[in-house]
Specification:
alpha/beta; 2 helices; 127 residues
Length: 127
């Protein structure tokens, strides 16, 4: 028995926010919409490097997010290249971000939030 790797993460939201998240992750983060099985509920599968990494699923109109649950989720991270272009894209779109260097590695991380408030991290190897 073994865990073989990370498959994807899922964000569930009402349709308007779902479409806003799709646009954000495609236009800002650089993911792209790909094939998705014909589930009964509406949604998108977003891909990076030929793999589905983010699933966006429409929440039913009567769905209520539990308010008594505290979460420890902080962010999802993506491996990227072209840091200067990403920083320019974030700035042009008015997305506030912060950069941090990983000690001893030269790797740079860009941190920001998506339209739903979820944390996003872009990782760049020493360039």
């Amino acid at each position: 028995m073994a865990t073989l790797g990370f498959a994807h993460y899922n964000l569930r939201a009402p349709r308007a926010l779902l479409d806003e998240l799709r646009a954000f992750y495609c236009e800002v983060v650089g993911l792209y919409v790909g094939e998705r099985p014909p589930f009964r509920n509406y949604g998108y599968w977003l891909y990076a490097g030929g793999r589905d990494v983010l699933h966006l699923t429409e929440a039913s109109p009567d769905a209520q997010a539990p308010t008594e649950i505290s979460t420890t989720f902080d962010h999802a991270a993506f491996t990227c290249s072209g840091r200067a272009e990403f920083e320019q894209r974030l700035t042009q779109r008015g997305v506030r971000y912060r950069a941090a260097e990983v000690p001893l590695t030269g790797m740079v991380q860009l941190f920001f939030h998506d339209p739903a408030g979820n944390g996003v991290e872009l990782n760049f190897s020493a360039e």
